[in-house]
Design goal:
The protein is α/β, with parallel strands linked by helices and 308 residues long. A 5-stranded mixed β-sheet has the order 2-1-3-7-6, with helices on one face. A two-stranded antiparallel sheet has the order 4-5. It is globular. The chain starts with 11 loop residues before the first strand and ends in a 14-residue tail after the last helix.
Length: 308
């Protein structure tokens, strides 16, 4: 992935210096954590956050499912005011995130212009370990997530290492595009919010009456975000020719590694389709591919698809 000439976004809020210490690694984006990671206590907290905002917590937090029992919070976290740096970070990781975000801004602005609409970009909050935001308390173990309340993406970049080393979702230089795909997925949720899809999905989940049906709606939400990530890659490639051989394969490998069936089997040794919230490995790969090959938002209507 060649990203040196991407415009750097200044819609970054850098709170990495304010995070608590002692967290050993990332998680998220549908990833279960090992010892000391997201446990039953955290699930309860996220459920309360979702209840308080009237939003299914799995929409708010992309990596808060498929976890093992135990662990969790020993004490409630009391947020403290922190000085955030706004603008483009100067360190290599911050530069990469700003470059990818800037590219999504330029790409989606072009796409929205073609629909006679104006694209309003999200803010992206970089943090370390833990953070307080518009959707409540966030931990690195939750993974990257989009909060529709404050229209921010929350990202602890330490989870990038987990995709490569723990879950084998990519290898070598191609991991850069896998990381970009993850950011583009969260931007996809912002696009859903701007287009009104996300509020409708939230309302449908509240009206569903049971968790199984709510999960099925959630799968369609997540697969559409995967498809939108593919649309971004398609249009950006036309504009920038930034992809290297193996990049798309890396994204598909990452999508497979974070499929619900893959994660369930790894965490509990069995697959429970009714508990899917992001889609199977095959579904995630397929919908990213649909977006990338067709490059049209209309192709990403997972809610109208008879078969996912």
């Amino acid at each position: 992935m060649r990203w040196d000439d991407f415009r750097r976004s200044d819609n970054i809020e850098d709170d990495r210096e304010g995070g608590g210490g002692g967290f050993g690694g990332g998680g998220g984006f549908g990833l279960p954590m090992g010892g000391g990671g997201l446990g039953i206590g955290a699930i309860v907290v996220l459920s309360l956050v979702g209840w308080a905002f009237g939003i299914d917590p799995s929409i708010l937090i992309g990596g808060a499912e498929m976890v093992r029992g135990g662990g969790g919070y020993s004490q409630p976290y009391q947020p403290v005011p922190r000085a955030q740096r706004s603008g483009t970070p100067s360190d290599p990781t911050g530069q990469f995130v700003a470059a990818v975000l800037g590219n999504t801004e330029d790409t989606w602005s072009d796409i929205f212009r073609g629909m006679n609409r104006q694209y309003t970009p999200p803010k992206l909050r970089l943090f370390r370990d833990q953070e307080q935001g518009g959707c409540g308390f966030a931990q690195a173990a939750m993974g990257p997530f989009y909060c529709p309340t404050d229209r921010r993406i929350y990202l602890d970049t330490s989870f990038f290492r987990e995709i490569e080393t723990r879950f084998h979702g990519c290898t070598g230089n191609a991991c850069k595009f896998s990381q970009a795909y993850v950011i583009a997925h969260e931007v996809g949720h912002h696009v859903q919010n701007l287009l009104g899809t996300l509020p409708k999905a939230q309302a449908a989940q509240r009206a569903a009456g049971n968790k199984v049906e709510a999960n099925r709606i959630q799968v369609r939400v997540e697969l559409q975000a995967d498809c939108y990530a593919g649309v971004w890659a398609n249009h950006s490639e036309q504009r920038k020719q930034f992809l290297d051989p193996g990049d798309i394969d890396a994204a598909l490998q990452t999508a497979s590694a974070i499929g619900d069936d893959t994660l369930q089997k790894r965490a509990q040794g069995r697959i429970v389709p009714d508990a899917f919230t992001h889609g199977s490995a095959e579904q995630r790969k397929r919908w990213f591919t649909v977006g990338f090959t067709q490059g049209k938002l209309a192709a990403c209507d997972t809610f109208a698809a008879a078969q996912l």
